[in-house]
Amino acid sequence: MILPGATLGMLGGGQLGRMFVHAATSMGYRVIVLDPNSSSPAGEIAHLHVQANYNDAHALKALAQECAVITTEFENVPAEVLAHLAESCPVHPGAHAVEISQNRIKEKQYAESLGIATAPFYIVNNEQDLKQAFSNIKSALILKTTSLGYDGKGQAVVQTFEEGLEAWKALNFVECVIEQKIDLAAEISVVLARSTTGEINIFPVAENVHRDGILHTSTVPAKVDEKIQDQAKAHAQKIVEALKYCGVLAIEYFVGQNGALYFNEMAPRTHNSGHYTIDACYTSQFEQQIRAICGLPLGNSNAHSAVTMVNLLGDLWGAKNPEWLNILHNNNVKLYLYGKKDARPGRKMGHFCNIASIGEETLFTAEQLFSDL
Ligand code: ATP
Ligand code: MG
Prior knowledge:
By secondary structure, the chain is an alpha+beta fold. The protein has helices at residues 15-26, 57-66, 79-85, 95-101, 104-113, 127-136, 161-170, 226-243, 276-280, 285-294, 325-328, 363-371; strands at 7-11, 30-34, 48-50, 69-72, 121-124, 141-145, 155-158, 176-180, 184-194, 200-202, 206-211, 214-220, 247-256, 261-267, 306-313, 333-337, 348-356.
């Protein structure tokens, strides 16, 4: 068990790392953040920011010496780096789980191997693969790069083989998957934790709305059939058990108009759709990550409030900052800004949560507040 006072290592300095640092320092831990950028949301508030690349052997060695445990908030830390670090320091989650999550083919095949349905898909390495997908799947398809995609980047919706080929060319013919575009009734996600002791704890299912492939809102409780929610939780539990996972994991699912649940992808870390836990649950996903990797008992993940989280993207920024008072006048709004200097379109700059008593509506009000910014 790693108790408060110890130093925790964080690979990655983005907003997920920043909220982890907030939670860790509240509990009396020290945090060292490793991130290649000179300024980063987590690095600027950590006890120490090591500015180095993820494969900088010297920096990694120093980190392993200083830290009682190392975790990650950035999905694309090379799995070999985690494996190498693990020789001298506990690293959670481990290289194996991260490697699967970094690769769309591996994660889909892993889900299928456990009997969990995914949208029908084909691996694309040549034109023939692409042809086969179009002759076997009778609907629009989505072409996605196998690795390094996020926020809808590296993806294209395609209707015909010719369009598919054009889109693949635009992706430089890298290995892709092409999958059926599901007729969506809803999108949901499950964030859960499994600790070094094997204890598992699952947060309430969030219902997510995406805009242009980027998460826009997450709402709890989800307005999705309880049976489907239970199934999503059961699948998530099966995955962390099979992987002997340690840390926080997030799984995104599609719910089809036909009522079917499909595994979309997983992230070996805290997740944007779990930010609501800070304000609406007894334990946040960031505190849970600390508890899980330190071998502490997991916290109560139940929701004490209803909530909608709204992402604030760089698009909202013009010559000046958005009018924060327009949302802060509502005393149920909690505002989070990540300290990023450049407000580029599509960049996650912050989020807000609109909380209410359980049973009350939160999404409509949150959308109204958002439109006032
Ligand atoms: P993330 O930032 O979540 O990692 P990503 O770039 O990895 O995003 P996906 O989660 O695969 O991308 O897709 C982004 C969004 O695009 C989904 O949340 C969904 O709204 C839409 N989408 C992707 N694949 C499908 C599909 N097969 N059917 C219907 N909608 C889809
Ligand atoms: Mg996604």
